[in-house]
Amino acid sequence: MSSQPETPVSPRKVRRxxxxxxxxxxxxLALVVGAALAAVVVVIAASRPEPAAFWGALVGSALxxxxxxxxxxxxxxxxxxxxxxxAATVLGSWAVKMFIVILxxxxxxDLESISMPWIGLALLVGAVSAVLVEAVLLARxxxxxxxxxxxxxxxxxxxxxxx
Length: 163
Fold this sequence. Notes:
By secondary structure, this protein is mainly α. The chain has helices spanning 11-46, 51-77, 83-108, 116-141, 153-160.
């Protein structure tokens, strides 16, 4: 027997842990699927006679990682964040991702050595497939929304005074 008293685990914590694992699993699988499909696009582009296709697919695949990796990171950080800081982190990462993608696309738009259609194809196949995989897996997990009712000011005063 252990000298440490066992701490009871509330059903709320168990459900939250299961929800965290489902979210982490979904984002990791989405990352793997998105990266694999982006790699397929790079291989197909490499087989094309024009080198701009390969470089475009490579840039698009890198942008796919820019779109998917922060989401994976947030799912692992999420259990340590408050709801407000989680929302701020998600919103901030989305803004940074969009800013990076737009800056890269503006920087390479006039380069003849990089094919814009192949950038778009790699982004479409990689990032969109990752988002679809993530959405399907999260919809299948269907974690219940567990919200505690808010006490009114009168009820809080009654509880605080011991009545």
